[in-house]
Amino acid sequence: MKIGKVPENILKRSVFKQIHTKRPEVVLGAGVGEDCAAIKLADDETLVLSTDPITGTAQDIGTLAIQITANDLASAGAEPVGVLLTVLLPETVEEPELRHMMRQVEEACGAVNVQIMGGHTEVTAVVNQPLISVCGVGKVKDGRLISTAGAEPGMDILVTKWIGIEGTSILAKEKEKELRTRFSAPFVEKAQRLDAFLSVVPEAAVAVQSGVGAMHDVTEGGIFGALWELAEASGVGLEIDMKKIPIRQETVEVCEFFGINPYQLISSGCMLMAAADGNALVRALEREGIPAAVIGKATDGNDRVLQNGGERRFLEPPKTDELYRV
Fold it and tell me: Which strands sit side by side in the sheet containing 304-308, from one edge to the other?
């Protein structure tokens, strides 16, 4: 396609025709020439916004764009309502690829009942692969807003599902050929399918009902980065038992193959939480079929300690995600 705005005829047939999910709160949505979207909320509800680009992979970019945004909103205790998309495409992209991308986006939106409210679609020489930046819009009842800064000394620290599953899935898809030099096809395919666990919307809903104190979606920088950010935002220390942090064997094997640290690998699908009674929250999550584990406690002071058997060391500020090393 040519550099510049995507032509109106392509926009209509390959973007707008893929959009089907609708929300009653959205009173002005996507359309040719529309620069804004509008949402009508009740008096006792707060608007919650997020923004995030997908830059680490081009595979399944439409699906990831929506899942990551929905996760961000869910980590605040909000119900995702709609998204605004900025889609930037290199000249090498053809219209069928754009249509496929938008079908991915709409399918992911339908899965979490989110409406595509509008956005911007452009072909540009400043990108060498498709890029989607998403502005997410959600709503939360007054008094139910959850933040990363809500952890208090004495609270239990817990995580849902497993760390590193997003990075494992991305690597298994983009580096499939290399991985198959060591691992069987079924193993690699199982690692690729870990993207089925990337949504944290269900666990966030359970946690809000169970009185969670803080939530933080574990994304770039992995669990180490997320732990630091939660502690920094809340002004607390940490005592974390690394042996209790859940990790799948596929992640262990893939990270060993590439020589990277799974604790610093992008981990969407894993939600970090702080709660006064972490064991009760774990039971509530498990009743909904969501695995979770208490991995430590928030403490007074600034010491953020990682315990690994007899070894104790201090958590460091977030580093560049291990995905980019590969």
Answer: 214-217, 271-275, 156-160, 292-299, 237-241, 304-308, 311-314
